[in-house]
Amino acid sequence: MNWLEKNAPKLARVSFFLYLFFLFFGTSLPFQDAPAELQDMETSNLVNQIVFSAMYLASFLALLPEKQRILQLVRKEKYLTLFLFWSLATVFWSDFGFVSFKRWVQSLGMVVVFSAALLHREPGRKILDDLKAVLLLYVPLSLLAVLLIPGATEPGYTAWRGLTSQKNTLGQVSLASLIVFTLSWREDVSWNRVATSLCWCFSLALLIGSKSTTSLLAAGILLFLAMVLRAERTLLRPVAGRLLSSLIVLAFFLFPFLLLYLEPTVLDSFVQVLGKDMTFTSRVDIWGNVFDDAKRHLFLGCGFEGYWVEGNSRLALLYKDLPWVINQAHLGFLDILNETGVVGLFLVALMVMHYLKDHLEREEAEPLKWFVFAALIVNLQESTLFRLHLANGALFILSYLALFADAVHRSSSPGEP
Prior knowledge:
The chain is mainly α. Helix content is 71%, strand content 0%. The chain contains 17 helices and no strands.
């Protein structure tokens, strides 16, 4: 056994842990004012480039001894690989080809880091432990920053942003923290449950303090979903069987859409209760403008992450009616459509359906599924899927790969087919 084969698991784990650390903590100084121009958002961070490039390279080296299992993982998951190939193809017709290619390489690097960690360690509890280790440090420090440092509150608002750049990001991180500590609490020994419980309470406080309507609403939906699925497993299924109980649950979730169809004013009342209006803080106007641009290249897209780029003349029309600078459509599926076209959005839809199908076919619970559900909900108001170094989108990819990496581990275990 050569040095690389011997040390690959350690290399993969260290790279994965460091990736999680910098994913949450970032590589730039916190408490900075929000950028006033798009070019300020795009300013290269040399530390960011060095740190993440080193992790990508280390994880790639860790994957070299795992060629067979890499192929197995690709065959099992399929659609993320196809989406990455298609995204690379869009670079060739992107107006900002270098930017698109650079961000594609960074997205591929994230997948490499996650794949190396998942193939060298069984997914599930161990991956959750790494997430928990980072968040046990991150969450108390964020709350301490909010209490002691004025810059941890958004300028001109009472909303908290903690160690992140803005309140919605803190809301997404806090939501992820709640999921991690909820899943961890049941498995912790008694002395460890105290720290887990405290950080769960801190995460809830940060989520509420962020005043991020999207993340708060996502937390409520996930809680409701957990209660319904629990009732389906423990009450409905033993009485009605899996098929009938699943149909009952499906009908239950379709009921709100039927209600909105029959009584559209319900949505307006609900939005007002949340303190918003029917424009969703000007998001409707943004969606309309971005979709008008998307129609110009509807099938192929304008290029992977090649729209929100300095120099794109189409953005001038969008910014003239907005009081702030944005770098996303605040609807992640629309950004995917705009940048990778109908083909890219279709592949993402296949990813989700493939994940859900495989998940439903398993008898045992898959704990990381909650990150997938959270990402899909948040992505209706924020663009986080396939966006660099955003915890919500990164955990979606991690959870997606974990399900199929677990199947790879099972197939290579003694006694498995």
